Structure formats: structure tokens, C-alpha cells
């Protein structure tokens, strides 16, 4: 098999080929780095690429493989988002400025290394992960491999672009208001928003809103990366390999209360309802339900804005931040006291009220976003309030599950007539990843989304 034919070979397949001696890590890593560099002028997925370090790690992986050592990702190239620490590189989280290089790996990165993964680089993200587009003065514009005139989403947009383009098979992202699921939806990927605490982070991120999660082209690959990053053995890979059983699935298209103007695009709604029909064809019962979200948004803002404030304290040159970031940080300072404590105190009640829907259904199916991916530059020149309105109009569905801390999986839901990807969410109650992964894997067998690739080449 030639290296150039490996553009869309999956994570699990690459690991198996390495273990069988069919290819070397040096070849795989050099090919991944070559594709990453070649795509940079068009897609701009990476903030940092580790050419020398990655090739040295690949050579070491080859020595270990030749000696008979085995590990889940030994020698397989992957990437991580630039909001987690990787020794020797700065963690600038989309910001301008000279950040110090990390002197130790984040816990999830350490687990990736322990599993033998070769990390080829860190991927682009908007400033402090605030927006569903990956653009900013620190790095420019990250583009969608399916249509470079459109955003791949955010804030894990660089990871999504790198995977969807075939540069790498899987990447780690983070999700604080849909930041794994939204770019997965808009680039045709599987993206898992994990249960809070599932993947170690070394402390709460954005006051419990943000978790780490995988992006991949298949459920199997996402499950493999999740098992490694969460140190759960083969728990989620096993879930991807078994039938979910007959489930009662609640279809919900109502937008949670946002206090801004929102509307579900008919193209997105049609794609989600078509997916519901596919699930019904697999033997599942589909019922229309509406979770009792109430005013959950009032508990989101203190946590998210205080999290922005916290991160700005680490920025070496705050004057270089986007004015919208500085404004959000100012609001975070005001909300960091009683409002933040109240938001956290209300969470158990939200679990009970919204979670009551799982007394009627096993899984929720909802849109991941309300619109297809917007064109590049849609959010340019907007004030903070205008940005919030445009952002919520495009992406009103994902963030409640961050408040709850519960898992969700984006699955591809087809393409628009113009060839732009759309997605749907499978949402579950606390610690329901295995059920969601089993269902997503079953759906993948009939939807066959891994066979769809972007036509764009750099």
C-alpha cells in the first residue's frame, strides 16, 4: 500500500497496519506532516507543526514495534487543539502574543503519549474558544475542506479541518458550548462531547462547561481515541462494536430559550428528520419530545464569561485581544461572585428537570446547529452583541449539554445541495457514552458517511 493512498485510512486501521508491519510510523508520520504542510496555505488547520520532534518520535515507535511492543496508538499520528499543554510548545488558545512553552504535558496528552501516539502538531482555535468560527488575528482564517469559502466551525475548527481533509485520522478537541460537535457537524465528522470528568483535564475548565473529546471520520476511531484519552481500556471501542438494542429515541427540534432571534433552517430540519427515518428503519421507536429547558441560559453565562476572564489573566499582552474578548472578560469579572455560585448551585435542579425526558426516551436526537456552515468572514466587524446574536442564531442547540455535563455525539446528517456538511446530535443522560456510541456506530453502517470525502485538494 502506498502512503498517498492512506489519506482517509482510519485511526484503528493505521494502528493495525503498524502492528502487522505493513507500514512504518516514519512513513505514516512523514505523510501526515506532508499533507498538513501542503494544506496549510488553503486550510490553515495548524498553529504549530512538530516536524523534527514527530519524526523522532515515529522512529522511536518503529524501534518499539520492531521489538514486539504493542500499545493502542503506537506510531499513529494525531493532533491536538491549542488549548491543552504539550511540552515544548506554547498554549496560546488562539491569542496573539509570546506565550511561554509548556514544561509538562496536560493529562490527556500524557495519556496519548503513553498509548504511543505521535502528535504532529497543535490545531487552530479562535480566541479562548469563544466562537463557532476559527478566525483571528493571531493565525488568520481556518477554512472548511468541503468548501474553503466556508468556516469549519469552532472552536475546534482546526482539529476538524485537519481530520476532514485527510491530513490525519483523528484529533483531540474541546467542547464548552458545542466546540467539538459544531465543527464535526460542519465538516462531516463524528465528534464526541464527553461526560464531564471522563477525560482528565487537571482541573475544571470554564467552571465545568468545557470537556475534551475526539473528532474522527468513524465512530470506531472516535471511540478508540476516547478510550486512550480517558484511560478506559477498550470500553468505548467495545460499545462501537455491539448493537445498541431497540431504543426509544426522542426527536426534538425546538430551540432552547436564547432571548435572541433564532430559526431552524428547513434544510437542517429535513436532514435531521431523514436521519430519524434511518433510525426507525433500524428498528428504533421515534417519538417527538421537547425537553423542559426552562431558563438554562441564565446559568451558562456566568460560567462561560468567568472562564474567559480567567484565561485572559494568562495572556501576556491583553491589549492585543479582540475587543469582544476584552468585553466578555469584563462581564466575567462582574459575574465571578454570587452569580457564578448560583449558576453552579442550580445545576442539580436542571439535571432533574431536563433529565426527566429520559424517563420517556433513551436518547434524544436534535440538530447540532440551526444552519449550514456560514461563509468565511460572516462575523467580521460585528460588535460583541451582534456576534452573540449571529452565533446563537447559527448554533443554539449544543450548549445546554455543557451546562448539564452530560455526553453527546455529533453524527453526519448529509450534505446541502451545495455540498456543505450537516450534523445531528445524539444526546444522553449522565454517563451514557456507551449507548450513544453503539447507536452512532449502528447508524454509520446504513448512512455510510466515511465514504463521503471533500473534493477539495490543495
TrEMBL record:
Residues 27-436 form the Amidase domain. Keywords: Hydrolase. Transmembrane segments: none annotated. It is an enzyme of class 3 (hydrolase). This is Amidase. One of its GO terms (molecular function) is amidase activity. It comes from Amycolatopsis vastitatis. Its EC number is 3.5.1.4. InterPro entries: Amidase, Amidase_CS, Amidase_dom, AS_sf. Belongs to the amidase family.
Amino acid at each position: 500500500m502506498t502512503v498517498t493512498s492512506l489519506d482517509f485510512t482510519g485511526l484503528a486501521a493505521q494502528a493495525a497496519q503498524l502492528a502487522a508491519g505493513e507500514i512504518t510510523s516514519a512513513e505514516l508520520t512523514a505523510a501526515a506532516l506532508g499533507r498538513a504542510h501542503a494544506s496549510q496555505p488553503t486550510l490553515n488547520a495548524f498553529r504549530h507543526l512538530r516536524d523534527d520532534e514527530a519524526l523522532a518520535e515515529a522512529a522511536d515507535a518503529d524501534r518499539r514495534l520492531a521489538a514486539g511492543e504493542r500499545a493502542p496508538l503506537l506510531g499513529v499520528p494525531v493532533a491536538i487543539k491549542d488549548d491543552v499543554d504539550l511540552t515544548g510548545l506554547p498554549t496560546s488558545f488562539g491569542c496573539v502574543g509570546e506565550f511561554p512553552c509548556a514544561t509538562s504535558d496536560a493529562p490527556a496528552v500524557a495519556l496519548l503519549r503513553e498509548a504511543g501516539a505521535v502528535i504532529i502538531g497543535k490545531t487552530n482555535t479562535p480566541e479562548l474558544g469563544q466562537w463557532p468560527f476559527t478566525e483571528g488575528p493571531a493565525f488568520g482564517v481556518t477554512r472548511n475542506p468541503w468548501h474553503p469559502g466556508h468556516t469549519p466551525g469552532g472552536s475546534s475548527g482546526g482539529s476538524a479541518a485537519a481530520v476532514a481533509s485527510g491530513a490525519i485520522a483523528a484529533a483531540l478537541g474541546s467542547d464548552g458550548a458545542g466546540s467539538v460537535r459544531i465543527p464535526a457537524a460542519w465538516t462531516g465528522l463524528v465528534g464526541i462531547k464527553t461526560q464531564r470528568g471522563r477525560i482528565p483535564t487537571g482541573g475544571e475548565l470554564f467552571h465545568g462547561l468545557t470537556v475534551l473529546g475526539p473528532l474522527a471520520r468513524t465512530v470506531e476511531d472516535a471511540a478508540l481515541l476516547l478510550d486512550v484519552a480517558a484511560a478506559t481500556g477498550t470500553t468505548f471501542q467495545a460499545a462501537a462494536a455491539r448493537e445498541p438494542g431497540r431504543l426509544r429515541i426522542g426527536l426534538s427540534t425546538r430551540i432552547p430559550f436564547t432571548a435572541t432571534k433564532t430559526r431552524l433552517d428547513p434544510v437542517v430540519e429535513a436532514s435531521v428528520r431523514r436521519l430519524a427515518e434511518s433510525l426507525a428503519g433500524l428498528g428504533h421507536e421515534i417519538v417527538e419530545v421537547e425537553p423542559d429547558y426552562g431558563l438554562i441560559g441564565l446559568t451558562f453565562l456566568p460560567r462561560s464569561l468567568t472562564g474567559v476572564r480567567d484565561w485572559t489573566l494568562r495572556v501576556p499582552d491583553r491589549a492585543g485581544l479582540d475587543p469582544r474578548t476584552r468585553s466578555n472578560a469584563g462581564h466575567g469579572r462582574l459575574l465571578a461572585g454570587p452569580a457564578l455560585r448560583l449558576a453552579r448551585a442550580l445545576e442539580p435542579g436542571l439535571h432533574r428537570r431536563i433529565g426527566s425526558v429520559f424517563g420517556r426516551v433513551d436518547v434524544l436526537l436534535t440538530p447540532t446547529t440551526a444552519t449550514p456552515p456560514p461563509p468565511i468572514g460572516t462575523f467580521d466587524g460585528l460588535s460583541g452583541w451582534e456576534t452573540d446574536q449571529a452565533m446563537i442564531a447559527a448554533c443554539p442547540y449544543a450548549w445546554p449539554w455543557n451546562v448539564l455535563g452530560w455526553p453527546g455525539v455529533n453524527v453526519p446528517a448529509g450534505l446541502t445541495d451545495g455540498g456543505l456538511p450537516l450534523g445531528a446530535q445524539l444526546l444522553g443522560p449522565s454517563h451514557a457514552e456507551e449507548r450513544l456510541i453503539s447507536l452512532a456506530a449502528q447508524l454509520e453502517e446504513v448512512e455510510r458517511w466515511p465514504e463521503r470525502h471533500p473534493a477539495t485538494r490543495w
